[in-house]
Amino acid sequence: MEGLQKVVTTPCNGLKTPTPPGKEAGAGKDSESNGTTDQRKPSKSDNLACREEGPIHGPSRTVSDCTKLADFLDVWGPTLGSIPNTPRFRNGNIDRSSIVKEAWQYLRDAVVYYNGTKVGTIAALDVSSDALNYDQVFVRDFVPSALAYLMNDEPDIVKNFLLRTLRLQATVKRVDCFTLGQGVMPASFKVLHNPERGTDTVIADFGEAAIGRVAPVDSGFWWIILLRAYTRATGDYSLAHRPECQRGIKLVLSLCLAEGFDTFPTLLCADGCCMIDRRMGVYGYPIEIQALFFMALRCALQLLHDEGDGNDFVKMIEQRLPALTYHMRSYFWLDFQKLNTIYRFKTEEYSHTAVNKFNVIPESIPDWIFHFLPSNGGYFIGNVSPARMDFRWFALGNCIAILSSLATQTQAKAIMDLIEERWQDLVGEMPMKLAYPAMETYEWKIETGCDPKNTRWSYHNGGSWPVLLWVLTAACIKTGRPQIARKALELAEQRLATDGWPEYYDGKDGRYIGKQSRKLQTWSIAGYLVAQTLLEDPSHLGILSIEEDKIIKPKLTRANTLPARLNSSYS
């Protein structure tokens, strides 16, 4: 691997501002291997620019007061202020500059090359254990690394990654005798070097080698989200305009917008199809996938051309978003009032006006939720399907819901209130719990199949994941609560570098390094760098966050299937 030549520890002074329409730069070379980018800016006739939600980026900032950024970023200001017991940031004796320098050193050491071109970062640098698949480039794992490079004004590796994974998408994908859909993005890929021939070969994993043989549903969504982030950070629209990128977006959308037997606008998924890539009882409609699905649809709406079949996909997205928005905000959202309503549900309701639409049995509500949910907090629960509600908290899905504006401003405030009220449960001594609470005893046996890696308060089952720092920080800045992110960052700095940048921590408070945790985990390193950079320069939030679109608010109408008797009564 290439050693560190020069470590940049200060954030870049802002993203590239687009040239005003009519002053387009000449098109430059745009190849994956030479790393150059086309800085052509969109004219008034560009359909992509027409769907952007405003300026890509504001002026350079030296203050971290996100209130002053509200005029040009979709940051919800201090009117949604913190409750009195908000944790405050303490400087302490932490040498942050040395931690940042070390993190950048490791991140650069993790870079993977294909024919001399940077195409990603491996999952972990730890050589104390067998490599397994930790020496591969994972799509979801690379996202925080990509954001760190974009915020440091080093976009070439991100562009190369996007193009390389796009080419892998076009390959034939087989699991045993079955061929996967064309739009499936790889979970990971590995570059094999042949020193004798001087050639490199890329081998991709689409789930055929993964634990449980589950295809990664989230990879395609992360790819679209990262493509938008690259476009916003660089002002380079030429990459998204490329025919192969347009085709890649459409192939992903073809998979998730296809008509089927489902009666819900959400996506039906198997267990282990996302960051939680082992059996954990998240089959059905997991919040992580639904939030990423929503965000990817909104990103695709900004990236697609309004011509040819691109216009057809735009129409499909515009039809799906209102239904998905209403479904998620109505049925996945849980606060004190909603919990009380579910607690009083009647069952076996057969009518178009049923209140308990999913026939959830009130006796299935777990005891812990009544003590966990504060009166002023709320969150999107883990899963909703017929006769089943998974009340567990999942951090990634809720933070993405804030960034994508799936959550309303009121709901985003409630999520932040919950994190503050239940700080010890959800953050503890190391940010942040991936899922809460942990499954134990019989529930653990049934839902995980007695998985020895997902024992209580470990790994996906209540483990603490430092990588979540970046999504937590972004959500905090957007909601006007940067002090929460500063406190979380301070907690991480107390141990993260000293402990060797572990993959995850175990224990109810996140006190112990995970029993099977890899050291020098790349996304733990990158997640810290992104969080630290966002707090130093919150204007970087513009490459991630999407403001609420008034157009997607659902218009409530009567069901076409209402009996004539009821139909007339509502007229």
Polypeptide structure, described:
- The model is unreliable at 1-50, 52-72, 77-91 and 565-571 (pLDDT under 50).
- It contains 19 helices and 15 strands.
- By secondary structure, it is mainly alpha-helical.
- Helix content is 37%, strand content 9%.
- The strands form seven sheets. It has a three-stranded antiparallel beta sheet with strand order 3-6-7.
- Helix 7 (243-256) packs antiparallel against helix 8 (287-303), helix 8 (287-303) runs parallel beside helix 12 (395-403) and helix 17 (482-495) packs across helix 18 (522-536).
- The longest helix is centred in the middle third of the chain and has 24 residues, at 309-332.
- The chain starts with 46 loop residues before the first helix and ends with a helix.
- It is globular.
- Strand 14 (505-506) and strand 15 (512-513) form a beta hairpin.
Secondary structure: elements and pairs:
Layout: H1 47-50, H2 96-109, E1 111-114, E2 117-121, E3 137-138, H3 139-151, H4 156-169, E4 174-175, E5 178-179, E6 188-194, E7 199-205, H5 217-234, H6 238-241, H7 243-256, H8 287-303, H9 309-332, E8 333-335, H10 336-343, H11 368-372, E9 378-380, E10 383-385, E11 388-390, E12 393-394, H12 395-403, H13 409-421, H14 423-426, E13 435-436, H15 441-448, H16 469-478, H17 482-495, E14 505-506, E15 512-513, H18 522-536, H19 564-569
Antiparallel strand pairs: 1-2, 3-6, 4-5, 6-7, 8-9, 10-11, 12-13, 14-15
